[in-house]
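user: Here is a favour to ask of a fellow structure person. I have my own habits and do not want them to colour yours. Could you put it straight underneath, so I can go through it closely?

assistant:
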Amino acid sequence: MPEKILGKYTPVSIEHTSILRKFTILFLLMSVIPTCILFYFYVQISENGKLEITAANFNLTLTFVVLGVILGYFSMRAVLAQLVALTNANKKALEDVLSPEKIRELSTEENEIAILAQSFTAITDELEENVKSLELAKKTLQSIMNKVGKGISNMENIDTFLELIIETVTGAMSGKVGVLLLANKEQKDLWVKSVYGVNYDGNKIIHFTAEEGTIFHKAAQLKDSLIVDRLSGEVEGFKKYKNLFSAPMICAPLVSKDKVLGFMTVSGRSTGNFKENERNLLFNLASQTAVAIENSRLNKDMEKTYFETISALALAVDAKDKYSRGHLDRVAYYSVQIAKEMGLDEEEIQTLRDAARLHDLGKIGIPDEVLGKNGPLTDQEETLMKKHPEIGESIIKPIHSLSHLCDIIRHHHEKLDGSGYPDGLRGDEITPLVRISTIADIYDALTTDRPYRAKFSKEKVFKILRDMKNHDQIDADITEIFIEKQSNE
């Protein structure tokens, strides 16, 4: 049959035409012989008025009919064989797309056309389901990234970030419980870092094993996430903590630089088993979380190095003056005492401790002859000495991890009545932590020897502090808390 291409007719072999066209051609060919016979009979009747059939004519006609039937049979059988082959190929292709149960259901049909129709219907249904799954995965990923993005912008520490991650991914995957476990240096023992979905005492360390044969070990070896349809005996063995894990479950390793830092699990889903796209999603999220954890550890090491280096500078300044030697440690001790009596949290206590160790760092920029002068300072020397809070702040301000100490270092000589330096702050402009540091600094300065005077007794210092309190120079409540604490020692 010819085919028109770009205005020209090009012959096309019947072997390469569609099944419908083959059927049409063969049907027409099969119709030629019966039509010719009928036409022959019609001509005889028209000419003679009657139908005359001789033995020779009958034999010839019968021969053509038999040949036509045979030709039609084999031709149509060839076309139908192609249709059956197409159906079988379709069934084989379906095995990679449909579930075994659906394949068995289709196999019960004997009609190839029905199988073909049902196959296309099943594929269509599967594609629609996949589209829905992809849409759900897209929405899940968007939800996770939005929450994680907000968490990163507001994140104060890695713990907050990890709690947000486990909460978000558990909710997005319709899980009941999410658990984040971190590994020790040997990567054998695991401890629970964060849990979402059940009541859990975060201060209690729970140990799990990552030894050979466990789910955690398998995930670590593969460095890939696993979908667990049924919990194996080794996980069920943690009967004391079985509320943390239940089937179905996804277990994803936290992999950074080919090192497994821990695992993330989402379990207890009530809407059916987890799917492949969700497994990939959790693995990718776990990998990003591992990078964040590793970076946090490196940052902490860098912060520790920064702090220790600058502390060494501050101690060097402290050691230059035999009269004030040990001043930094004592101010830190008194500040922590006051903070604990006031019920401040551990983070604020640590801030006070660190700031006390660095509060006189700026004296590194003051000449030795001024720092160790035997007698009162001149006005010019006094002005120079009052620069040390600003110098100290300028040293640590560029270091982001120490920026929270700037307020105390710059303002530990401020007074509530505005008579302090360097900014002359008043009242509520001075934060509680600065007020604590100021009292601790004044107390230590008055109870130690100076080049120009001997140290004062506790009782005299208490009187001086109360006088300053009464003149609204230092915080009254903090002063009384501190005096009472020192009186009992």
Observations:
- The domain at 321-487 is CATH 1.10.3210.10 (Hypothetical protein af1432).
- Residues 1-10, 151-155 have pLDDT under 50 and may be disordered.
- Residues 276-320 form the longest helix (45 residues).
- The chain has three domains: 11-94, 157-295, 321-487.
